[in-house]
Specification:
It catalyses: a quinone + NADH + 5 H(+)(in) = a quinol + NAD(+) + 4 H(+)(out). The structure is a single chain. The protein has helices at residues 18-50, 66-76, 87-103, 134-155, 159-190, 195-200, 207-210, 212-225, 237-240, 250-275, 283-288, 297-319, 325-355, 360-392, 427-435, 444-453; strands at 117-119, 122-124. It is an all-alpha fold and 454 residues long. The chain has a domain at 69-334. It has a two-stranded antiparallel ribbon with strand order 1-2. Helix 1 (18-50) crosses helix 10 and helix 8 packs antiparallel against helix 13.
Length: 454
């Protein structure tokens, strides 16, 4: 069997008794909730550190119980339903947004499928379940969660939430195409859509090394899919007050906030599974320690990788400003989608050549030649296009600069010149005029005044 194809053996799943399935499901839910509670405090602490502030320091030791206090406060606040809202959809929208966020963790492996652990004397895998199409299942439940945001904006009966819901819909369409293409590159190399098989296929080399472009594309799209800064356009408080959740309060608002952070944990777990070796120990540790990938240790490596990706989310929020909406759409349609499609074609070509037993040098030669030919062709096309535009562009005289255009004085832009300043009178003549002396070189305005006086 080729080392690039993973053995898709899922016979170890589906054999657990019902009580063990319940325990594992409760563990997945508890893992997400505890990680969310920690992430909220961690985000406030890290952003405060970046902005030279103290951050939460009142509830619990070092303020670590701040997120729990916030959750209790939101539960006890007054729950308001606006009059113009569609009440059924208005109430269901937070539920639709929150529930799918918890569902994707069911197929994420916390440990190797072949290394079973013992729970109350029952041998089981460190994964709730797995499917031959597990990644398609993750894509499906992630798409359903976006509809909660869209329905929340529509059902509120208000203008700003509606705009936020429309932005969320456009953002989902724009970024999921590139995300699917990044997934497809992983499927081509692993030979499977099963999450456990994808991790097994990264035994020799993580896919972040083999597929760096897919990794970068997915990292950008996961920020857009979770509506996090700098791509948090559906809830940008700078121009939409609060976006899709403007009319929500109390526990409903808390569910939207919970869905956002759970989605952050989910996409971080998916990134770890697809590109960072999943539960595998990093390279230096796995080299000198044979037991690093056995027992309960794989869960430690998995959690550490997820927390590093969550720190990346926090780092982006504290570093980059929010982009404009046209920049968001341009990044999705004019950059991510073309790059992901071209990269997918390149990966498919390399996989086909490897299946035909071509040497690595021949593959690099063919692929490099094709890339250079494509770049040369695009350069020639752009050069002729610019020449054609320059020939067709009419030559217009430069417009005069008006410093008070629009009612306010403005400085000149590059390429503009200020109008010439009228020559001032010599100082001696100005003193004569002020003192009442003769004005032998009066301008037109003074001549007119003297004529009227005469």
């Amino acid at each position: 069997m080729s080392p690039y194809l993973a053995a898709e053996d899922l016979s170890m799943f589906g054999r657990d008794p019902w009580w063990l399935v319940v325990i594992k499901a409760v563990f997945c839910f508890a893992f997400l909730m505890v990680t969310v509670l920690f992430s909220i405090v961690w985000e406030r602490k890290v952003v405060a550190w970046m902005q030279l502030r103290i951050g939460p320091n009142r509830h619990g030791p070092w303020g670590m119980l701040q997120s729990l206090a916030d959750g209790i406060k939101l539960m006890l606040k007054e729950d308001v339903i606006v009059k113009r809202a569609d009440k059924v959809v208005y109430v269901l929208a937070p539920i639709v947004a929150a529930i799918p966020a918890f569902m994707a963790i069911a197929v994420i492996p916390f440990g190797p499928a072949g290394n079973e652990i013992s729970i109350f004397g029952q041998r089981t895998t460190m994964q709730l379940t797995d499917l031959p199409i597990a990644m398609l299942y993750i894509l499906a439940v992630a798409s359903v969660g976006i509809y909660g945001i869209v329905l929340a904006g529509w059902s509120s009966g208000s203008t700003y939430p509606l705009l936020g819901g429309l932005r969320a819909c456009a953002q989902m369409i724009s970024y999921e195409i590139a995300m699917g293409a990044a997934f497809a590159s992983v499927f081509l190399y692993s030979g499977s859509m099963s999450t456990s098989a994808i991790v097994e296929a990264q035994q020799d080399r993580w896919y972040v090394v083999l597929l760096p472009v897919s990794f970068v594309i997915y990292v950008v799209t996961m920020v857009g899919e979770t509506n996090r800064a700098p791509l948090d356009m559906p809830e940008s408080e700078g121009d939409l007050v609060g976006g899709f959740n403007t009319e929500y309060s109390s526990i409903k608002f808390a569910m939207f906030m919970l869905a956002e952070y759970v989605n952050m944990v989910t996409v971080s777990a998916v990134t770890t599974t697809l590109f960072l070796g999943g539960w595998r120990a990093p390279w230096p540790v796995s080299t000198f320690w044979e037991g690093a990938n056995h027992g309960w240790w794989p869960m430690l490596w998995f959690v550490v990788k997820v927390q590093l990706l969550l720190f990346f989310f926090i780092w982006l929020r504290g570093t980059l400003p929010r982009v404009r909406y046209d920049q968001l759409m341009k990044l999705g349609w004019k950059v991510l989608i073309p790059v992901s499609v071209v990269w997918l074609m390149l990966v498919a070509t390399v996989r086909t050549l490897r299946n035909e037993n071509y040497d690595f040098a021949d593959i690099a030669l063919y692929v490099g030649g094709g890339v250079l030919a494509l770049l040369l062709l695009s350069f020639v096309v752009d050069m002729f296009r610019e020449r054609t535009k320059a020939a067709e562009r009419p030559v217009e005289p430069p417009a005069g600069f008006d410093a008070t255009a629009g009612g306010f004085p403005v400085p000149p832009l590059p390429g503009q010149e200020l109008p010439p300043v009228p020559r001032r009178r010599p100082r001696r003549e100005r003193e004569l005029i002020v003192s009442g002396g003769p004005d032998t070189q009066s301008d037109g305005s003074l001549d007119g005044k003297e004529a009227s006086d005469g």
